[in-house]
Amino acid sequence: MTDKMIPKEYDHKKEKYWQDKWEDDEIHKFIDDGKKPRYIIDTPPPYPTGSIHMGHVLNWVYIDMIGRYKRLNGFDVLFPQGWDCHGLPTEVKVEQTHNIKKNQISRNGFRKLCVDLTEENIDLMRSQMQSIGFSQDWSREFITMTPEYMKRTQYSFLKMVGKDLIYQGIHPVNWCPRCQTAIAFAEVEYESNDTFLNYLRFKGLAKNKKSEDGVLIATTRPELISACVAVVVNPEDERYSDIVGEKVEVPLSGNEVQVIADDEVDPNFGTGAVMVCTFGDKTDVSWVKKHNLDTIEIIDEKGIMTEAAGKYKGMNLNECKLSIIDDLKEQGCLEKQKTVGQNVGQCWRCETPIEILVKKQWFINVNKLNTDIKEATEEINWIPEHMKSRLINWTDSMQWDWCISRQRIFATPIPVWFCKECGKIHVAIEEELPVDPTQNNPIAIDKNGNKVDYICDCGSTDFQGEEDVLDTWMDSSISPLSIAGWPEPNYKDYFPADLRPQGHDIIRTWAFYTILRSKALTGLKPFKDIEINGMVFGEDGYKMSKSRGNVIAPDEVISQYGADALRIWAANSLPGSDLPFDWKNIKQGYKFLRKFWNAFRFISLHILEDEIKDDIKLEPLDKWILSKLNKLILDVGNGFNDYNFATTINSTQKFIWHDFCDEYIEAVKYRLYNKDDKCIESKLAGKYTLKTVLDTILKLLTPITPHFTHEVYSYFFKDKIEYIQNTNWPIINEEFLSRECENEGNIAIDLISYIRRFKSSSKIPLNQSLNTVNIYTEDEQLITILNQFKNDIIGTLKIENITIKNSKPNVNQKIVKVSPVMSKIGPEFKKNVGKIVQCIETTDPEEIAKNLKENGEIDIEGNKINESCLNIEKELVGESGKKIDLLNMDSLDLILEIIR
RNA sequence: GGACCGGUGGUCUAGGGGUAUGAUACCUCCCUGACACGGAGGUGAUCACGAGUUCGAAUCUCGUCCGGUCCACCA
């Protein structure tokens, strides 16, 4: 042990010192020499917004605990950190900051501004992560906007094109008019609000009677009326049976459309007649396809009405809606308006309502991969298990292919050119990656292996580079492949990853896409375990969000209570369960560390000067705490292996605070302060035990509170730094793992706390000695046990004289109550329990006790009940001497006579 | 509308066939040679509701209500 001054109080400000030391000494580096088994973590690459939030803290504390736990268990851990850079928010931020629009400067210029902003944000977030003590190997950092990462993303595109899984096509796509790009279904979120359902009269054009009234349709989107291509009714709906097949006239536009029948129409909604517009929603798309209807492009990319809208051209959607409603009213076509609730799909990044436009886009053929995805999903170990069904459900609900092209700038370019002569698509070759086709012409490799200009089959060398870029999820969905070094041939040494930790909000995106890509590119599942963490709620019980004003920044907590306290809060939870933020829990963690620090200071006073030897004769109480310690090693290990973090931290805290500090340390103090040479052995046993417990629990706590344990551990050494992170996880010592030692110790602890309580309630100061304690019991086993613990009992309680007598004191014990022990009686007597319990409760307790004493059991209608099935409450009766207290313990069958 | 998770002392929580764990808050007492930023006690829960299975249900089954999350979506 060191002679360094140990401060009276633990200073969490020292956390920074350890973070820097770890970084300088690279103790979290992935060695990769093949000497240790590898453990690969597919760390989430967050979007570089500039600050991390409590959700990140929860997710990364889990990752970090596992990483540190695995390192202590002899694994070579790859814990990289990535950044998912591309995407709209950064573009928007750049546009705001520089007050420009993306089209006002060159693509490269705009891209450069995005890169600069992203780098700044990564720097900020990296240092915030370090301030929580996360143990990433920063030499393995990956950034999706770097050329080397983009090369992998583009290569994965090439590979999937080669497997016929990617195609370009003209399809309706979800379109964000604000971002002016296509988005995937996974990026559409639904918001509910109220709107008007408008009832519009379409004039019938046939000459028969039935069609005179035409048809009344109900729509929430009258602004699309000029794009109406049909009216649909349910084939079973008798109201419309005569008009099906007839033509009707669309109000305002005057177009003639046909009334068709389709059983997807709900006759009970609105009027049971629907106008199909291109495109109001997803059902419109399917009707257009099914009935081979026209499409009328009425909205442009910016959400402005086109030529096809006639007089409404140039208006935005809302202006158009108001104007059309006015005109409909004027013409008498609007028969009524009714408020209805609806869910509007909107862009998940900017919350603008999405439109469905028909566009030429790139798609991944999801249907070809669905079976593979589900197969891999089943092979993966989901924690918690029930999260698996979310992915299965999502996969089953896939209707459209994944649209992977975006009409933006800051993203990985799609490595494709179009021949300006013949229009043929040319996909880049591996050798020219990474490439931005808007900046470079395609190349080819000639017979001699030299790079030459690519010539189209038609002979042209004039190419138009694809301006569309890839969906950001195309970058992040290869993260486990990228960290494994794919497509290097040895990537399978690092793939599939051992662990994918992530939130449940991105199961349908990140988890789904990663599994899809991994199966498509390698045929393998991307990871073995997927741990899904819950969301962080504010103190008010709702999801933390700026709009609710319930956000607490991690920095705020760290500056007040330190990163370890924050980590304890996060660790006290389970994967899959949402976790409310709670200052009380943070403080509780902080208090725990303070308590442990004080215990450490006490221990250090006693193990400072001596060499602690191993071959020592332990006292029964030492064996008691050591048995509990070994049980703790088992529990904590199981907790980490099963991702049951709450159990881990709870059982550790309970052990340290109560078993160790409150009971063991108190009971062993007298030995440590004893100057008598005769007691040297038990003193050394105490020191050995204290040292062993301290040493072990530091290791058990290191994954959770690494700063604290490194600080404490550093006092074990004089002039050098040894990292506890570089030691080994404690091995369970089977010899000490003994239920018997624990039970016997519990008896002694019970007795000690009972007498302590007596002192306390009798207002005797705890450090004042007791003249005499006589223990009376007729239980011989109990006598043996108490004799073993005699010294510790005397010492702890400062008892001058103690006797343990196999007899009764000169008083009477009265049996006041006998009650059944259900856990014993239940399983043994099953159906007869009712009678037995009733009998016990109605019989005089003294009589039961008498029977029990005489026969060793009682007989209730043939059922033999012995003492272990009964709880016998006794009371002492009789005069106790003035200075003598007689106590009857509930939990142990003994009587105490105490002379003060 | 569908799926999943949950409803346990004032608050949060463990457990998941034998009447309940811990934390926090509150109350009482105690400065004992690591710690009053501590310790010892105490009050406080018919485990959402209803029915069923069982000798016995917080625990299993079914139904209801409430909360949360995800998904779908009606024009």
What does this structure look like?
By secondary structure, the chain is α+β, with helices and mostly antiparallel strands. 38% of the residues lie in helices and 20% in strands. The strands form twelve sheets. Strands 7, 8, 9, 10, 11, 12 and 13 form a seven-stranded mixed sheet that branches. Helix 16 (620-641) packs across helix 20 and helix 17 packs antiparallel against helix 18 (680-701). It starts with 14 loop residues before the first helix and ends with a strand. It binds one RNA strand of 75 nucleotides through strand 8, strand 12, helix 6, strand 13 and helix 9.
Task: For this entry, give a set of tags.
900 residues; 24 helices; four-stranded antiparallel sheet; 20% strand; 38% helix; single chain; alpha+beta; seven-stranded mixed sheet; RNA-binding
In short:
It contains 24 helices and 35 strands. With 900 residues, the chain is an alpha+beta fold.
Describe the protein's topology.
Blueprint: H1 15-24, E1 38-40, H2 54-72, E2 76-78, E3 82-83, H3 88-98, H4 107-130, E4 142-143, H5 147-162, E5 166-176, E6 181-183, E7 188-204, E8 215-219, E9 228-233, E10 247-249, E11 256-261, E12 273-277, H6 282-290, H7 317-330, E13 334-347, E14 355-364, H8 370-379, E15 381-383, H9 388-396, E16 402-403, E17 405-406, E18 416-419, E19 425-427, E20 443-445, E21 451-453, E22 463-465, E23 469-470, H10 472-476, H11 479-483, E24 497-503, H12 507-522, E25 527-533, E26 536-537, H13 554-561, H14 563-571, E27 579-580, H15 583-607, H16 620-641, H17 645-673, H18 680-701, H19 706-714, H20 739-761, E28 770-776, H21 780-797, E29 799-805, E30 812-820, H22 822-829, H23 833-842, H24 845-855, E31 857-860, E32 863-866, E33 870-877, E34 884-888, E35 895-899
Parallel strand pairs: 1-2, 3-4, 9-11, 15-25, 24-25, 26-27, 28-29
Antiparallel strand pairs: 5-6, 5-14, 7-8, 7-10, 7-13, 9-12, 10-11, 14-16, 17-23, 18-19, 18-22, 20-21, 28-35, 30-33, 31-32, 34-35
Helix pairs in contact: 2-14, 8-9, 8-12, 9-12, 13-14, 14-15, 15-17, 15-18, 16-17, 16-18, 16-20, 17-18, 17-21, 18-19, 20-21
This protein binds one RNA strand of 75 nucleotides through strand 8, strand 12, helix 6, strand 13 and helix 9.
